[in-house]
Amino acid sequence: MVMRATAEDTSGSAVGWLLRGYSRLYMAFAGSVNRAQELEADAAAVRAAGKAAALSGFREVPALVKAWQEYTETYFELLPYADRTPELLKGFRDYLADPVRATEFVTDQALLLDADPEKTVPRLEIPPVPEDLGPRADWAQIVEIAGAAVAAEQAAVLGVHSGTAADAINAVSADHDRDTLIALVENAMVHVLMRDGLAKHELNWSGPWHVRMINGELFDVTELVADVVDDPTGLPEAREWFTSLHASLVMSTVTSNAVASPPE
């Protein structure tokens, strides 16, 4: 039923044709399909769509398989953190509709057009989705839950899970390799904001997420943290900036609440 609805939503496009003719590729809960069944499905797809449409569709299969592989590898790793069952096919459709991913798809189609798929395209592997994962949720909900869990987990690694804004950025002195330390400190800062209701993760199909603060601005401190890790003399200035940002966001919530609930 979900596959049929998705195919209808994408009718008239190459993706819709492929979803109708190649639905077996995307059934995450189905068992393995033998070669005879594959050939039968191929023949049925050609009969249903006509030779011209079939040729056009087959030419896009390698790029579509590659896109599916990247989609599952990027977003399925969030599922254990969220305890939710994703809208698998709708998510893939939205993933392909993202401007960045759409451009990648066209580029991959051109690169793979004359290539040997066995050598250039990873074999289709659909990660298992446990049946007891949790209630169904859209990817936006999964990202919000998983993002918070990841940030809290990495803040705990630095021992600042319940710390202050200053504690989070002070952790740049922790004993980790450079790239790991940058990711840990950035997530610790995100955790402090999320814990205090000042930011949340939002779904980003180019990404898998970005962090948006309650003032509507994106929170991206990768470059800032990297600079402080490389040159610790910049820590006092960075600490002052982050603690001031945290304080201003807190103040904005207090003001907003006061306006929303005036005294009687």
Give structural notes:
With 264 residues, this protein is mainly alpha-helical. A hairpin with a 5-residue loop joins strand 3 (199-203) and strand 4. The strands form 2 sheets. The chain has a two-stranded parallel sheet with strand order 1-2. A two-stranded antiparallel ribbon has the order 3-4. The N and C termini lie far apart (54 Å). The model is unreliable at 1-35 and 258-263 (pLDDT under 50). Helix content is 63%, strand content 5%. The chain folds into 2 domains: 2-131, no CATH class; 138-260, no CATH class. The protein has 13 helices and 4 strands. Helix 2 packs across helix 4 and helix 11 (178-195) packs across helix 12 (222-230).
Write the layout of secondary structure elements.
Layout (H helix, E strand, L loop, with lengths): L1 H8 L4 H8 L13 H15 L1 H25 L3 H4 L2 E2 L1 H10 L1 H14 L4 H4 L15 E2 L1 H19 L7 H6 L7 H18 L3 E5 L5 E5 L8 H9 L4 H26 L4
Helix pairs in contact: 1-2, 2-4, 3-4, 4-7, 9-11, 11-12
> What is the CA–CA distance across the termini?
54 Å
Rounded Rg: 23 Å
Number of domains: 2
* Helical fraction: 55-70%
Question: What can be said about the biggest beta sheet?
Answer: 2 strands, parallel
- The number of helical elements comes to 13
Q: Name the beta content range.
A: 5-15%
Parts with pLDDT < 50 across at least 5 consecutive residues: 1-35, 258-263
